[in-house]
Amino acid sequence: MNTLKQTMLNNRLQKRRNAKHVIALMDEVAYLDSIIEPQDCGHLITARNVLYDNAIKLLEELDNDEK
């Protein structure tokens, strides 16, 4: 397979992996949202925010790749 076709295939596979990763991250965010209590859950809120930020960054990468 020539290098251009291989590069295109790798890019498509990476986009697919990133899309699946976004879905997994958002599932985790939803789960954390369901168990966070008003008190003593600062560590869960921090984890949720980090996961959410990572999902947003991946979505931005996907959007930039499509342009």
What key attributes describe this structure?
67 residues, mainly alpha, 0% strand, elongated
Describe, in short, the structure shown.
The chain has 2 helices and no strands.
Question: Would you give an account of this structure?
Answer:
With 67 residues, this protein is an all-alpha fold. The protein has one domain. It is 87% helix and 0% strand. It has two helices and no strands. The radius of gyration is 16 Å and the shape is elongated. 1% of the residues are buried. The model has no long low-confidence stretch (mean pLDDT 93).
Write the layout of secondary structure elements.
Layout: H1 3-35, H2 42-66
Helix pairs in contact: 1-2
The amount of beta strand, in percent, is under 5%
Task: Tell me roughly what share of residues is in helical segments.
Answer: over 70%
Tally the structural domains.
Answer: 1
Given the C-alpha coordinates, what overall shape results? elongated
Please report the number of helical segments: 2
Alpha-beta content class: mainly alpha
Roughly how many Å is the radius of gyration?
A: 16 Å
SSE sequence, one letter per element: HH
Number of strands: 0
How many angstroms separate the termini?
Answer: 26 Å
Q: Enumerate the spans where pLDDT stays under 50 for 5 or more consecutive residues.
A: none
The biggest beta sheet reads: none
Q: Averaged pLDDT, please?
A: 93
